[in-house]
Amino acid sequence: MPQNITKHVKDMIAEANTEVTTIPTKDAFALVDSEDHVIVDLRDPREIKRGGKIPGAFSCPRGMLEFWIDPESPYHKDVFNQDKTYVFYCASAWRSALSAQLAQEMGLEPVAHIEGGFGAWQKAGGPIEQIE
To answer: 85-105 burial string, b = 16+ CB within 10 Å, else e?
Structure first.
């Protein structure tokens, strides 16, 4: 018997976008090198290697986010224990919307995500750091 999925990804993303701050892509350009922000790249390392990343972004694969945020986790990363604004992005702003919502629910604050993700960043001419 086929599964009866009752909560769809598009609905989850729409809900997340009502609960978290979305930063317009061009406004996010000003956050590169900001002392008050941590830009977090949620993409898989292979995606980053293929296309580069926002300069100075901290790489946190989506699957590790909860573990790296939680100070009680053996995998905790100190980067998530700063008095700064956390700005998430992924390829198209789907994973980042859900991640920002989750981080906010965990108590990380303030959080936001970049509208349109890395794809929109590239199209808008944002700076890109290539990874070797």
So the answer is: bbbbbbbebbbbbbbbbbbbe
In whole angstroms, give the CA distance from residue 129 to residue 60: 16
- ω into residue 127 within 30 of 0, thus cis? no
Which residue has tokens 């590169």? 32
Q: How many CB atoms lie within 10 A of CB 121?
A: 23
Q: pLDDT tens-digit profile of 58-94?
A: 999 999 999 999 999 999 999 999 999 999 999 999 9
Q: Look up the pTM and report it.
A: 0.95
Q: Which domains does the chain have, with CATH numbers?
A: 9-123 (3.40.250.10)
Q: 108: which 2 tokens?
A: 């990380």
In the DSSP assignment, the letter for residue 57 is P
Residue type, 83: D
Q: How far apart are CA 108 and CA 104, in angstroms?
A: 5
